[in-house]
Amino acid sequence: MIDVGLKNLSNLGYVVSINDESFFDTENIAGTTAQRASSINRAILSENTDIIMAVFGGYNCNDLLEHIDFIELHRTNKVLIGYSDITALLNAYYAVTGGVSFHGPGFGTFCNPSLPAETVNGFTKALRLTNIEERLIQPQMTASDLWFLKSGFGPREWKSHPEWRTINEGEIKGILIGGNIESLVNLIGTKYCPDFDNKILLLESGFNTDPSQFRMWVSHLKACGIFDKISGLLIGNFTECSRKRFSPSYLDNLISEFVPEIVPTLVNFSSSHTDPILTLPIGGFIHMKLSNKQNEICMSVPEIP
């Protein structure tokens, strides 16, 4: 499986180096806090490293926040990318430095023999972003089966992608923050939590989300006053096993109860625990034009002085 990931990234022109810590196992974590932080900081300092890509997500990136040299990462202008629990690192990086990182595929994503073209194209498009807006296109198909547990890593269980659907209409351009809701909630109250004022917030959840659990996290964000601060909201596409647990009106009712109607809101967005995963710039710009007739979402990054 690793060979597939190496080949897919090599085909894009990258030379991949996998840190030893990626293979560590300390109580179901890839090494101790010190080992994991050292792995990232070595990559930050390495002259041979341009992109720091997580292998996968997990639960404990918040262990690392006070040990990562975010200032040096910003100075070297290296790319930090991942999703799921990596949300903690991406948003902490923005909170500390104002720098742009990327909510997108990890190395594990590239190990998929049936890697979707939309994931690859979204990755390459995001990494060459400028201040000129790039439009994001909804994929036609989606899959969220655990392909890496299957014999031969397939076949994938592709289904029609749920429509990117507007709940609250409006047009807004703002800086994107957020990602995985579980990891984001853990940042609140720390110095690594980004400022939510006038931001566009991305929220997505893990593989088998319970509706009551997702409501609990959203309710917590509401209690913190976050939905009164943001200027736009993107809800990521749910995995198939999660979606089966939700009623058809679940998201509409949830948004109606917790999110002000003046906050433009779109659901089923393709940057989550489903394939394809579109790469988005955390700390970059998202421009949303949302209506019940047509949706347009573009991304860009601030112009470098």
From TrEMBL:
Coiled-coil region list:
none
Q: Which residues form the active site?
A: S84 (nucleophile), E204 (charge relay system), H273 (charge relay system)
Tell whether Transmembrane helix is among the UniProt keywords.
no
Where do the LD-carboxypeptidase C-terminal domain residues begin and end? 173-286
Q: What keywords were assigned to this record?
A: Carboxypeptidase, Hydrolase, Protease
Q: What is its EC number?
A: 3.4.17.13
InterPro entries reported for this sequence: Carboxypeptidase_A_C_sf (IPR027461), Class_I_gatase-like (IPR029062), LdcA_N (IPR027478), Peptidase_S66_N (IPR040449), Peptidase_S66C (IPR040921), S66_fam (IPR003507)
Instruction: Enumerate the spans annotated as LD-carboxypeptidase N-terminal domain.
Output: 3-104
Q: Which SUPFAM superfamilies match?
A: Class I glutamine amidotransferase-like (SSF52317), LD-carboxypeptidase A C-terminal domain-like (SSF141986)
The GO terms describing molecular function are: muramoyltetrapeptide carboxypeptidase activity
Give the enzyme's main class according to its UniProt record, as a single word.
hydrolase
Q: Give a yes or no for keyword Protease in this entry.
A: yes
**Database matches in Pfam families:** Peptidase_S66 (PF02016), Peptidase_S66C (PF17676)
- The lineage's top-level taxon is Bacteria
Concerning its family, UniProt says: Belongs to the peptidase S66 family.
Protein's recorded name: Putative Muramoyltetrapeptide carboxypeptidase
Species the sequence originates in: Xenorhabdus bovienii (strain SS-2004)
* Biological classification of the source: Bacteria, Pseudomonadati, Pseudomonadota, Gammaproteobacteria, Enterobacterales
